[in-house]
């Protein structure tokens, strides 16, 4: 899709400050890495705080500045701070905005950990941050991914880390699963 020079300039103006911030976040996440062995939960919490600010900014660009309207329909609100495993009907890469919106309403934006494609590792600035904050990067080859997934779920299961992993359901035996959906209208 061709963009007019003005739209390109607008894109730059919106994205450059965020990219600079992302670079700072990468540095902060990297500095936390050596502490991970000794204080894993503290590092997980701090990484989540940093991630929250980065993702909230992305969300603001989409919703506030680009006027996307996200409609969340559900017969039940996800409780604040509830951990969830979210299975998305991944029809377009923009669905992360929808998942982030739902996570944000539950105060879990910074706790989102995506099963991201391994190749995202090579996206400048973003890839390093994803890796440093412990996003599960998968190759879709089970032989290779098994260890990565085991590592990811160890934090959730053993250390009881709150997490929102990319419709969401409450733990069994608590309440019926909310049937929910988020839709968006793309900005023109
Ligand atoms: C990490 O965050 C959780 C949830 O906010 C909190 O209960 C816990 O005390 C924090 N732990 C550390 C070590 O910061
Ligand atoms: C998956 O990974 C294993 C170990 O690296 C490799 O031996 C195997 O050929 C891979 N399978 C596919 C379908 O790529």
TrEMBL record:
GO cellular component, one term: endomembrane system
Annotated Pfam families: Acyltransferase
Entry's Gene Ontology molecular function annotations: 1-acylglycerol-3-phosphate O-acyltransferase activity
UniProt KW Cytoplasm keyword: no
Stretches for region Disordered: 163-188
UniProt KW keywords: Membrane, Transmembrane, Transmembrane helix
Feature: compositional bias, Low complexity: 176-188
Transmembrane segments: 12-32
Segments forming domain Phospholipid/glycerol acyltransferase: 84-187
Matching InterPro entries: Plipid/glycerol_acylTrfase (IPR002123)
Family matches, as PANTHER family: 1-ACYLGLYCEROL-3-PHOSPHATE ACYLTRANSFERASE-RELATED, 1-ACYLGLYCEROL-3-PHOSPHATE O-ACYLTRANSFERASE 3, ISOFORM E-RELATED
Protein name: Phospholipid/glycerol acyltransferase domain-containing protein
Lineage of origin: Eukaryota, Fungi, Dikarya, Ascomycota, Pezizomycotina
